[in-house]
Specification:
658 residues; D-amino Acid Aminotransferase, Chain A, domain 1; OB fold (Dihydrolipoamide Acetyltransferase, E2P); DNA primase, PRIM domain
Length: 658
Amino acid sequence: MAAHDASRVPAWVEPMLAKADGGRLRSGAEWAYEYKLDGYRAAMRIAPDGTTVLTSRNNIDFTAEFADLAGVLAPALDGQAAYLDGEVVVYGDDGRIDFELMQERRGRWVRHQGAPKSTGFDDVPVRFLAFDLLQLGERDLLKEPYDERRRLLAGLPMPDPYRVSVVRAVTFDELAADRRTPADFLAHAASAGYEGVVAKLRSSAYVPGQRPDSWLKHPLIRTQEVIVCGWRPGQRSFTGTLGGLLLGAHDPATGDLVYIGDVGTGFSQAARAELMARLQPLERRTHPFVTTPPREDTVRARWVEPRLVGEIVYRQFTRGGRVRHTAWRGLRADKEPDDVLAPRAGTPEPAAPPPEPIGQKITVQAGNRRLTLSNLDKVLYPADGFTKGEVINYYSRIAPVLLPHLAGRPVTFIRYPDGVDGEKWFGKNVPQGAPSWLRTVRLPSTGSRGGGGTIDYPLLDDLPALVWSANMAALELHVPQWTVKAGTRQPPDRLVFDLDPGPGTSVVDCARVAERLHDVLVADGLTPYAKTSGSKGMQLYCGIRTENASAPSAYAKRLAQRLARETPDSVTAVMAKAQRGGRVFIDWSQNNPAKTTVAPYSLRGRDHPTVSTPVTWDEVRACRHVNHLTFTADEVLDRVEEYGDLLAGLAESAAPLP
């Protein structure tokens, strides 16, 4: 990556990314800590002659947009090339980093790109905060330990610290010498308005394009009580139900009811139905606020009397009086609307304190239920140190996209009470000690072990039920391709192909078979969706309409046999394991009403906390290595934040089974 001549800037490097720490801020002498910044990730690449290029996380050229930053460091480098990784930020009048101001500035830049070069942004100055150094002179630093890279970075002169500076970093030992802890550093980050803290392993190299365990981010979670003042009907897969809520709170200074934004994620299907039932009797013709909300926020709005109080998670309350990055937590029957005050703009709410420990147990609020959780520090994935607390945190955060795929489907658990290296337990019947509020359904037993009896299956249709199952170390959740309604099994609504790689093959070979199946299914009028199994293979799904419970298996078997005839050396439709060497087995039998398939977004009981992950067809076609279609819990949370639920259109795309 070194520059070969005076005017050539170092080659761009895909940035290393931080993995979520699962709610557990790491502690120990091997760690250093930095503030998590709320700006635009950027690389500052400087040639020996001072030529400077700023590029985004996706290698988009930022240089013209942030022209004030170009050339600032060149005089201090004495003709050396350099590559700094960092963040471009904007500060508000209160001295805090203000992402809203950055967005406003960006909007102006986009609108004025064609304007004369004299058009400036002096009223919103930017600052580059560096947190890593990847090259200095001819020296490539990627393989150097974090401590050495930071030492060299801290040694760089900063000619204009108002424009370019270094993010503060502190080691565990430095904190300890001041009689402080990482939790104290986190508390300071919260009070200073930072997004959170990043813990970095001091011995770690810089790994381009990866999200390893050596950088762990600990974001600050903020909650806010809100008054439900309106709602929007759902669209696409949520047609006919609630799509989102319009929120209000009382201005702390005047007491007026003001609009503070909306929330459209975090609802289970049951919560959407419950809210609809509660809101419809409260409908009114006009909004209840002292001033009219922005028109773009109120398209299709249905207004209600401001009587219901709920709670949301949010990341920021803007100067414009809006909550940002919201998710629904549930109704608060213990609060009155008069008690709900809006937060003050620019002053972040402190991180929610951890629940009070009770011996080895803690009591938490999940939606509208209080649950007692135990042994949160117990390691369930020894290879990663991934604990039960992190499992519960993952399922809590993935709930908005996972719950719709569990709704109305009886769940079979695979539990790992002693971790993935211990004995596993299959469970269909609701275990003893299950909470009385857990929804269940009694169905006739099926399969070879049926014996004519019945099974009481759990139905996980809200956050409390999901947290309860995670607390039992139910890592894997498996569901059938049909739902229940009023206690009765409905016809299948999903078609599934389980692609299982035999010895000598991998998910790469499954991807090639998936491409072929995709074309056949589309030709038959179906819309296929793909996901990884979270283990070695993958599954394809199609939404279907049929009244014949045996028809999906028959159709899937025909297609599997067709592909096996066409390419017998690479595909088999025969279950016998002796037939699978060097082939991908297309398991059509999972469409049998007695069979289940791992649910989308479920963890798997493997060495690492991998997840059955929805993927795009572009990703399937591009797969050339096992790592391309292998995702861990933290990576899936980031994917959902970026892409949403890639299976969201499955039900909406349902077509008659050919």
